[in-house]
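User: Fold this, then the next.

Assistant: Folding the first:
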Amino acid sequence: MSDKLKPQPTASTANTSPAESADAALHHIVDGFL
């Protein structure tokens, strides 16, 4: 799971949708933990 959360090299080149997706996922995970 942590591997998927970590930023991938492909996401670095196009940090528009992938970056937002990772951010949203992280926020959802944090919300779940809280």
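Now the next one, as you asked:
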Amino acid sequence: QLLDCPYQAFTKQLYLESKCLELIALRLEQLAEVENSSVPSHHLQADDIERIHDAKAILSEQLDNPPSVPELARQVGLNHDALQQGFHQVFDTTPLGYLRDQRLERGRGLLEPRQMNIQEVATTVGYASQSRFCHAFKRKFGVTPRSYCKIPQIEPRHV
């Protein structure tokens, strides 16, 4: 239909644009069908959601020495898979992803007053290696910790 367009000038342009939009709409519909068919739907019960929130609270309170995911699941009364899937549904991340993000946020906060060097911050927030901390920091915030420290502190940072 695109190659055999019967129109000329402005009408041809409108016709071709509408056909392109139609192709985009069809492709988006296909992608949505694939996504919906590949992701199983798990409806969480209210008590499971409460347990997942409890798991998040435990991780927040124990950033320095968090329980393993199986231990966390046991503490809140869920099995490992239910905790992983439920946590992802409720918070759009895994328990370990949440833990990593909280540690990095805490690390960013420790870098701001510039009273600790990067190695000290990495160790304080639970990273055994400075290079792993730097890599994770850059992945989350888009800059290395060293570059972040060089940004002038005029107002609160929102990287």
